[in-house]
Design a protein that fits this description.
This protein has 275 residues and is of the alpha+beta class. 25% of the residues lie in helices and 28% in strands. It starts with a strand and ends in a 7-residue tail after the last strand.
């Protein structure tokens, strides 16, 4: 029987004594679904899982999607490869929600560390429900009903600007036009309200001048990643982080260059658009 223990932070829980190489029972899946919504990120250690195990673990929570720009495992195209080293340093250094440029962003992501630098390359997670709760009442009221534009092209602007980048990403750009999401969304399981913005993909807050949009976006993004809302996860080989993409921001800590860091991720489709 596995156990779930909340970490001593604003979010997160560790799952112990669960072997992810074995099939999950329906009761296991139900408990993990509840824990994911409640604790927002679940952490697992020492999970030497195969590609098929990884795929099947994700499918237990919903259908899987493919990323429009990252490489994947040939036999398992839903397993995305995040590999960085001297020749390919990480370009992602902003807090973000995965793929908020989609009309229906993912429910969650399951990331495993395959090659992990010693005591480097952590990932930080931030609790968007707690960040919303701490907003002044007047600001909460003013944000209700507001929308923001999220953009693939904006989020991948550095890659697009590289020589040949626009041509390489042409299909992804064409297939992912800008989308609009509410600034404040409600979690479909917990009912908690959340701030649904991020620095990487949110291009603007709609209906405001460029200056006012930038000021409000920067202020809210700074607010959301204060230390009191954040948990920093230290990776080891075969550790897994499973986060609720509806209610957290995350960012990698890029302190490991030029060392090799290889992670693999499946991303789970949601069935509800942000509302």
């Amino acid at each position: 029987m596995f156990t779930i223990k909340k970490v001593d932070a604003a979010l997160g829980a560790t799952v112990e004594n669960l072997d992810l190489t074995a099939p999950l029972q329906e009761t296991d899946i139900a408990e993990l679904k509840w824990a994911l919504a409640e604790y927002q990120v679940l952490f697992f250690r020492d999970q030497d899982i195969s590609y098929r195990n990884h795929q099947e673990f994700g499918i237990a929570f919903g259908s899987l999607q493919r990323h429009p720009s990252y490489p994947a495992i040939d036999e398992f195209p839903e397993i995305m490869i995040l590999e960085n080293d001297r020749e390919n340093p990480s370009k992602i250094d902003e807090w973000h929600t995965d793929m908020s440029f989609k009309a229906m962003p993912p429910l969650g992501s399951i990331l495993i560390g395959r090659v992990v630098p010693d005591n480097r390359g952590d990932t930080m997670f931030s609790n968007l429900a707690a960040a919303y709760e701490d907003l002044p009442g007047s600001l909460k009221r003013s944000l209700e009903g507001m929308t923001a534009t999220h953009s693939f092209a904006y989020g991948f602007k550095e890659s697009i600007a590289e020589p040949g980048g626009r041509e390489r990403l042409k299909d992804a750009i064409n297939n992912n036009p800008d989308v609009v999401h509410p600034v404040i969304r409600t979690h479909p399981v917990t009912g908690r309200k959340l701030i649904f913005l991020n620095r990487l993909f949110t291009r603007k807050i709609d209906g405001l001048s460029e200056r006012k949009s930038n000021d409000l976006l920067n202020s809210l993004c700074d607010h959301m990643v204060q230390d009191k809302y954040v948990y920093r996860f230290n990776w080891r080989k075969n550790s897994i982080a499973f986060w609720d993409n509806r209610s957290v921001l995350h960012v990698p800590v890029n302190d490991y260059w030029p060392a090799l860091r290889r992670m693999e991720r499946v991303t789970i489709n949601d069935t509800l658009a942000p509302a």
